[in-house]
């Protein structure tokens, strides 16, 4: 218990760092995921190709390699940002590919007649997707999106290796101070458990209100 009480501020700073990474990267992942899912089902071939390339590349690229590409590659092109923002970009883009595929699977569950009826009323593709298809698709993909964001929270631990303040990185300081590595990691695990259980609880509420009854 001394590990936590003696270093509560350190744990707190790491915990808040992980929460910030998770929240900001989740918002980016959801926005890009919705956009790429729209591209994947668009009637324009170039947009479908862009969505396919985005998903294929990011889903098959190791997250650590993506961190190296973003944190070390972008500054070479003159884009210099705080490391935390680079970490948000890497996490958000990587996770957006999985959000996209979850949404696309949900879109495929919506009967084709829904879209045809909307188009017969004169609605554009964007209107049909935004007002008819996506609201129905979202109801079916709440659980997989929740699972994906939980994975994002755990993946944020990689950011600690790139000088970003987050929960797992606290073990380095505590190890140097001579604290037991077992208790150090135990309290780190508790921190991640709090974050993931909070996300799970949030999506359970969403599923109860808007999910499809099974």
TrEMBL record:
ABC transmembrane type-1 domain: residues covered = 15-203
Q: Which SUPFAM superfamilies match?
A: MetI-like
Q: Does the keyword Transmembrane apply?
A: yes
Keyword DNA-binding included in the entry's annotation: no
Give the location in the cell: Cell membrane
Annotated membrane topology is: Multi-pass membrane protein
- Signal peptide residues on this chain, from the entry's feature table: none
Keywords, comma-separated and alphabetical: Amino-acid transport, Cell membrane, Membrane, Transmembrane, Transmembrane helix, Transport
Please report a single Pfam family linked to this protein.
BPD_transp_1
Predominant location: membrane
Q: Which InterPro entries match?
A: AA_ABC_transptr_permease_3TM, ArtM/GltK/GlnP/TcyL/YhdX-like, MetI-like, MetI-like_sf
Which residue spans traverse the membrane?
21-41, 53-72, 79-99, 181-206
* Family membership noted in the UniProt record: Belongs to the binding-protein-dependent transport system permease family. HisMQ subfamily.
Descriptive protein name = Amino acid ABC transporter permease
Per the UniProt record, the source organism is Streptomyces enissocaesilis
Q: What is the lineage of its organism?
A: Bacteria, Bacillati, Actinomycetota, Actinomycetes, Kitasatosporales
């Amino acid at each position: 218990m001394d590990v936590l009480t003696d270093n509560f501020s350190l744990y707190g700073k790491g915990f808040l760092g992980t929460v910030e990474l998770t929240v900001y990267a989740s918002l980016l992942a959801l926005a890009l995921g919705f956009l790429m899912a729209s591209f994947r089902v668009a009637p324009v071939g170039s947009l479908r190709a862009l969505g396919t390339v985005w998903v294929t590349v990011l889903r098959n690229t190791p997250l650590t390699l993506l961190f190296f590409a973003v944190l070390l590659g972008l500054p070479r092109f003159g884009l210099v940002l705080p490391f935390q923002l680079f970490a948000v970009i890497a996490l958000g883009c990587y996770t957006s590919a999985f959000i996209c595929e979850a949404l696309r699977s949900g879109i495929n569950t919506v009967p084709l007649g829904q879209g045809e009826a909307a188009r017969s009323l004169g609605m554009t593709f964007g209107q049909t997707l935004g007002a008819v298809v996506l609201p129905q698709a979202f109801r079916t993909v709440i659980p997989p999106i929740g699972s994906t964001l939980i994975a994002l929270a755990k993946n944020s631990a990689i950011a600690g290796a790139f000088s970003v303040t987050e929960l797992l990185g606290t073990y380095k300081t505590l190890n140097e101070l001579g604290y037991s590595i077992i208790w150090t990691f135990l309290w780190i695990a508790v921190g991640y458990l709090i974050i993931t259980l909070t996300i799970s609880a949030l999506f359970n509420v969403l599923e109860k209100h808007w999910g499809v009854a099974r």
